[in-house]
Amino acid sequence: MKFKMRALIFLLCVTTICVSWRGYMSFSLPQNKRPCACERCLSEDDPWFMKHFNKSVEPFLSANYNISEDIFNWWKPLQGAKGNFSTFRRKVERLFLMVPPSPEVLESSPDRCRTCAVVGNSGNLRKSHYGPLIDFHDVIIRVNAGQIKGYEADVGTRTTHRVMYPESSVDLDNTTHFVLAPFKTVDFDWLTGALTTGFNGGPHWGVRSKIKANKHLVMVLNPSFMRYVHDMWLEKKGDYPSTGFLALILALHMCDEVSVFGYGADSDGNWSHYWEELMNKKLKTGAHPGDTEYRMIQELDEQQKLNFYTGF
Question: Membrane-spanning residues where (predicted)?
Fold first, then answer.
């Protein structure tokens, strides 16, 4: 117990020092020469990082943005989407009649340092006591059904964005952005229905008919962004990126400083969730290239492009 308290105090002290140093750096350097007010800005040129990072890729769909048919043809087989390109576009247009036509994103600025915490669902979060450190960030991105109640000391209490797909959806409070990760055309129909009168997708699709979420805070990941993550960050390994890895790369596009928690296997080597007992001890990552994703997170940490907290 004493070790845990010392570790927590150490983490908070390090965070305070980093914030103070960030403030000093932002004061001492000419702001018009730097893209952000952090000690180090992600968008600053770095050959290794820029080999993967493409700032011009739009992370979110909007009412005025149309993906190419080439992107659609890559995206369609991921989970067996029905319909053609025209059908896809009609469903997207219908959704944007209900949700904001363009995403609400905090833009970079020389006098601002945007900090992100990306909270995965790994069992390595148990007894980590990362909660206060996670809550310290400006933007806190959670993934799928990651739970908070009862785990506050380890995972924090705040959420600004939650990245989900229909099968993993949970109710959200009125201040949290619902970031839809669409893997098939019917996902757009589901969101339109689930936020209004209810969705009936038949007895064989196990999703909730309705969810609680603020429709004015809905954001939709761009299939072009999903392909970019798969091609540039994962070098086309696996069928497609996991929701968690999409959330992590999204943070690199939304923030100037990124901290990552709750990714990777637990201490026993199992890909488990921190809130539930793992029944299948041979559980792997399926279509997602879990090992490749984990190695990339480690490399980003080694290159000092994010801070990776692996748990105690």
Answer: none
Report the C-alpha gap between 155 and 133 in whole angstroms: 9
In the DSSP assignment, the letter for residue 231 is: I
Q: What are the tokens at 244?
A: 């968690």
What's domain 47-309's superfamily in CATH?
Glycosyl transferase family 29 (3.90.1480.20)
pLDDT in tens, 219-268: 999 999 999 999 999 999 999 999 999 999 999 999 999 999 999 877 67
The sign one gets for the Cα dihedral 265, 269, 274, 280 is positive
Partnered with residue 220 across adjacent β-strands are 180
Taking a C-beta distance cutoff of 8 angstroms, is the pair 201, 207 a contact? yes
42-51 mean pLDDT? 82
How many other C-beta atoms are found inside a 10 Å radius of the C-beta of residue 100? 15
Residues recognised as catalytic: 240, 288
Rounded-to-integer distance, Cα 283 and Cα 267, Å = 14
The whole-angstrom separation of Cα 222 and Cα 201 is 23
- Residues in contact with 80: Cβ distance below 8 Å, sequence separation at least 6, in sequence order: 184
